[in-house]
Each structure stands twice: as C-alpha cells, then as structure tokens.
Write a structure and sequence with these properties.
Oligomer: single chain
Strand content: 25-35%
Structural class: alpha/beta
Radius of gyration: 12 Å
Shape: globular
CATH superfamily: DsrEFH-like
Length: 86
Amino acid sequence: MKTILYLLSKELTSFPEGIIPQTPLQDYSLTLLLIQKGVRNTVSFPFPCYALSDDLESQGIASSYPVVDYSTMLHMLLQADTVIVL
C-alpha cells in the first residue's frame, strides 16, 4: 500500500473537495498533517489527521487532533511515498 501525506498550511472553512479525497483510495493510505495556519482547522477529515505542536504553541491554541513534534513530522515525511503540500 502506498502512503500519501498531505501538509496543510491554510485554514479552511469547509472540506477541500477536489483537492483532498473524501473517500479512501484503493491501494493508498492517506494522512494529513496540519502546519502553520492549518492548525486552526476544525474541519473533519475521513483519515488520520495530526497537528504540529510548535505551530499550536506559537498561536496559543489547542487542537482536537493528535499532536506531533518536528521529529515525528520528519519521520512522517521520510516514510511517505508521496508528499503533497497545500
């Protein structure tokens, strides 16, 4: 199974239809990592979603998503078959 990691640095008001799949893709595992202003998102995603701890701290907010640090982010980047930055 191939893995796709999305890095989302923008705050959204709704699900980004046509950009990120809403349903699972056959033979692909999708993961989303919220960074920069993206950590402000409250949109629901149908696959694992994480928020970067340093960006949450710098903006003084909490997240309903699991929080990861830079070391974990680097591991996620190196393990992914494809990385898409939005």
